[in-house]
Design a protein that fits this description.
The chain has two domains: about 5-70, no CATH class; about 80-205, Periplasmic binding protein-like II (D-Maltodextrin-Binding Protein, domain 2, 3-Layer(aba) Sandwich), CATH 3.40.190.10. Helices cover about 35% and strands about 15% of the residues. It has ten helices and seven strands. It has helices at about 5-15, 30-35, 50-55, 60, 100-105, 120, 125-130, 150-160, 170-180, 190-195, and strands at about 65, 70, 80-85, 115, 165, 185-190, 200-205. It has a five-stranded mixed sheet, sandwiched between helices. A two-stranded antiparallel ribbon has the order 1-2. Strand 1 and strand 2 (about 70) form a beta hairpin. The two termini are about 40 Å apart. The relative contact order is 0.15.
Length: about 210
């Protein structure tokens, strides 16, 4: 009998604290702080060499550190990117700034932007506006850094622009983008993009 995904983290922690459990666990990074707090993961700093660490993309390793201590090694990572449908827009002429991206969408409804309304897909704008979600101790500091209010205003302007969408209906956004329904620019993850073929060009990764 296999536990459901929401029960996996607690099941792993219970098993380890009970003297059992696996030697290795493949888990999302957001489980790390809970695992550290209940003492069910082992620090790796003394077990891996700097040369071994250097083989990984630095940001992926940093995501597996907590309060300066390394607890895991990455197996993969996913980037959310801003894609352009070549049939509707020339990637070489893509806007280079947030203001230019908005201005282009406001000129004509055929240059719309599609953004999936989730923190995961919209987070990129926070650091773009100088904001930081958490400090090194995991304490929220969004209201203390950068101009997050400016980013939220940018999103509001996008949502009011005819032909552009900030929506929780990912299927609708993807359909409009793939079918060329006047939505040439879309933010999505790598896994989704693989279904769109050669029409895609990536203009921004975060």
């Amino acid at each position: 009998m296999h536990p459901s995904f929401p029960d996996l983290a607690q099941g792993y922690a219970d098993a380890v604290n009970g003297g059992g459990g696996p030697d290795l666990v493949l888990a999302p990074t957001w489980w790390l702080t809970d695992f550290v707090s209940v003492g069910v993961v082992q620090p790796l700093d003394e077990l891996v060499t700097p040369n071994e660490i250097a083989q990984y993309y630095p940001a992926t390793v940093d995501n597996l550190r907590w309060q300066g201590t390394l607890y895991g090694l990455p197996t993969n990572f996913e980037l959310v990117s801003l894609f352009v449908n070549r049939a509707l827009a020339d990637p070489a002429n893509a806007p280079a700034t947030m203001d230019a991206l908005l201005a282009q969408a406001q000129i004509t409804t055929t240059q719309g932007i599609g953004l999936y309304n989730s923190l995961y897909h919209l987070f990129w704008g926070i650091p773009a506006y100088g904001g930081q979600l958490f400090d090194d101790q995991g304490v929220a500091m969004l209201d203390q850094t950068g101009n997050t209010a400016g980013y939220l205003q940018w999103l509001k302007e996008i949502s009011k622009t005819p032909g552009s969408f900030i929506d929780t209906d990912y299927g609708m956004l993807l359909d409009r983008f793939q079918e060329g329904a006047n939505l040439p620019t879309l933010s999505m993850g790598r896994g989704r993009s693989e279904n769109c073929g050669r029409r895609l060009a990536i203009i921004l990764r975060w």
